[in-house]
Amino acid sequence: MHRQTLATKEKALGKGHPEMLTSMNNLVLVLNRQGKYEEEGAMHRQTLAICEKVLGKEHPDALTSMNNSAPVPDNQGKYEEAESMNRQELALCEKVLGPEHPSTLTSMGNWALVLNSQGKYEEAESMNRQTLARREKVLGPEHPDTLTSVYCLAHLLANLQRYDDSVVLYERACAGYSTALGKDHPTTRACRQHYSDMLASQEQDGLARPLEIPNNLTA
């Protein structure tokens, strides 16, 4: 459906028209969910190039495009590229939108995921906690984006075998998602599953293996 919409807009408006950017960003997100990271990366670069050419690098829509696909290099194992992209993105978001804008907070969350993937757990924890504190202030404690920060931090602390802290956060995330999204929402189910996996790991005499970052975690 996104491809069809994009093709129709391109035919009617032209390839570089700003109205195409929303459809391109939506397609990037779908490709990410499907794990088609190479194609996602190519679409992201194309979208970002159009954003910068038509709108300018510091336009809010250009920053949204960067936000949507900043984790792409990380998904492909290109950690240094991912970290560089996220640093650049966060600096631009803070400059243009301010430190408490939702897009800035998304950028912070994305960077925390990249740091986690690289095993930079102290930096990742610090970034997660900053993101969580700002989201609680700006969006409220029960907003789904705030709960995603709780979920990410719980996952990180589980990998560090700080189970007592992780349990508290997982319980908050699971309860919050159940209320905000519903008990059968995919994110709610994934959170409960990872909470269960963490409890199982905790019981393995301190020999818990690091948990993989859940695919549904989009900060």
UniProtKB/TrEMBL annotation:
SUPFAM superfamilies: TPR-like (SSF48452)
InterPro entries in the cross-refs: NLR-like, TPR-like_helical_dom_sf
Gene3D superfamilies in UniProt: Tetratricopeptide repeat domain
PANTHER family noted in UniProt: AAA+ ATPASE DOMAIN-CONTAINING PROTEIN-RELATED, ATP/GTP-BINDING PROTEIN-RELATED
Protein name per the record: TPR-like protein
Organism annotation: Zopfia rhizophila CBS 207.26
